[in-house]
Write a structure and sequence with these properties.
49% strand; mainly beta; two-stranded antiparallel ribbon; five-stranded antiparallel sheet
Length: 78
């Protein structure tokens, strides 16, 4: 998955990551890594992300961490 956003300076910042679902087939819990694949054996390169809301068309999602310290709103379109 490719995440991108516009910085305050107007530049585009990108991060390429890999997500894997944790738990049952309908679980909202993910582990995501943005580190290179050869580091994927290290537990600390995986971050916990929870999908807390998703629109019916799968165009917008609200994602948080388990401690509720961060919130991201992800969109398929700018």
């Amino acid at each position: 998955m490719l995440n991108s956003c516009k910085t305050a300076g107007g530049e585009t910042s990108e991060a390429d990551g890999l997500a894997r679902q944790i738990g049952s087939k309908d679980s909202p819990k993910l582990e995501v890594r943005f580190a290179p694949e050869w580091l994927s054996f290290l537990p600390m390169v995986w971050g916990d992300y929870w999908v807390i809301d998703l629109d019916s068309q799968y165009q917008v999602a609200a994602v948080s961490d388990p401690r509720r310290e961060y919130l991201w709103v992800l969109s398929r379109t700018p």
